[in-house]
Amino acid sequence: MPAARPWRLPALLLLFLLLLLLSCRAEGDGSLRPAGPVRQSPPAAADPVPPTARTPAVRGAEPNASRPAALPKGGVAAGGRPRSASPPMCTGQTEIKETFKYINTVVSCLVFVLGIIGNSTLLRIIYKNKCMRNGPNILIASLALGDLLHIIIDIPINVYKLLAEDWPFGVEMCKLVPFIQKASVGITVLSLCALSIDRYRAVASWSRIKGIGVPKWTAVEIVLIWVISVILAVPEAIAFDMITMEYRGKYLRICLLHPTQKTSFMMFYKQAKDWWLFSFYFCLPLAITAFFYTLMTCEMLRKKSGMQIALNDHLKQRREVAKTVFCLVLVFALCWLPLHLSRILKLTIYDQKDPNRCELLSFFLVMDYIGINMASLNSCINPIALYLVSKRFQNCFKSCLCCWCQSKDLLSLEERQSCLKFKANDHGYDNFRSSNKYSSS
């Protein structure tokens, strides 16, 4: 069997992005159509489209998170918040084509099925195989659990919200869904940071990764990751609210980041949210990975002359884990870059007072949808990345998914051989470390 090639996954992601771009132009003028002059909605609205018709929510970076939503005449906001002056008229109206809605629905269903199968299988592999319960894999299991939580709760609700253009789930779910979205992406980001640091520690100080300290420290890391992610997601539950608005003769219930907030902190959070998402939830894991992988490379080059040939198998396993973590970070960057790029461009070059802004808004709307579909893929793609990059995970996935065509004795024999090989490599390294200790003394 040929070895798995890490470049295949980024190539597939780029191909998927190209297909989305082509689908935007599949119907004449694209996925957005002009519909005559429309007066802009009152409170500093970024565009004349109702929130449900613009873009669906995606975990950690909701489409209408940084700009106020439209409250047309007849719209009623919770708490009776005041409305500001109306921006100038927009020369055209943007609207999402039904085709693009169905594309998003198909992608969401694909993410739902693959995500549940892949992440559940990944959790089962780590739970069932004792030899897979090491520090990095426990962090990967935590990451998979966060993705699974997002897939089960958020994706079905977001698909319904997009197709029905209504929010019948009440205020409580309106606050819970973005809260889970933000907590899930926080777990992903902090887990990737912890994995990068763990790989550097594995190379720089071998003794820290042996003995009883490993499970305890990993458990502390996971608890901190979940607690910090939940705390950082609390402003989402506070800021989001449900409003009722009139649009084209219909009253719609909308769940969105409310244009006005009750406290100065929440007003600051609303204004700075897109920059906060970009810096903490995107740039941070990339910067930490680049920093610690640079240190790890320097450390490995420095210690290369002291390595013995007997450690080749052990070092190959360490390199494979490091390559796996790097691939997870790369996949995360490719999946989230389009959405963050759309948000930052919108913040920097979009002017809501420009009467000709609708053409630019149409472009951003297409970018939003492409970014949302790419970001949704990140919830299901980590198990696929592990399958393509790591031979150990590849064998475990095959054994777990194809267990009906193999006997239990054969499976347990394969698992025992894998664990024995793993322990033998660790034992060989322990002998090497002990001999170095006595020779140096």
From TrEMBL:
Stretch forming the signal peptide: 1-26
Region (Disordered): 32-90
The encoding gene: Ednrb_0
Sample GO molecular function, one term: endothelin receptor activity
Top-level taxonomy: Eukaryota, Metazoa, Chordata, Craniata, Vertebrata
Single GO BP term: regulation of blood pressure
Topology in membrane: Multi-pass membrane protein
Predominant cellular place of this UniProt entry's protein: membrane
InterPro entries for the chain: Endthln_rcpt, ETB_rcpt, GPCR_endothelin_rcpt, GPCR_Rhodpsn, GPCR_Rhodpsn_7TM
Annotated family: Belongs to the G-protein coupled receptor 1 family.
A Pfam family the protein falls into: 7tm_1
A GO CC annotation given for this chain: plasma membrane
Keywords from the named record: Cell membrane, Disulfide bond, G-protein coupled receptor, Lipoprotein, Membrane, Palmitate, Receptor, Signal, Transducer, Transmembrane, Transmembrane helix
Protein localization: Cell membrane
UniProt cross-references to SUPFAM superfamilies, sorted A to Z: Family A G protein-coupled receptor-like
Entry's transmembrane regions: 102-126, 138-159, 179-197, 218-240, 275-301, 321-341, 361-389
Protein name (database record): Endothelin receptor type B
Domain of life the protein comes from: Eukaryota
Ranges of residues in domain G-protein coupled receptors family 1 profile: 118-386
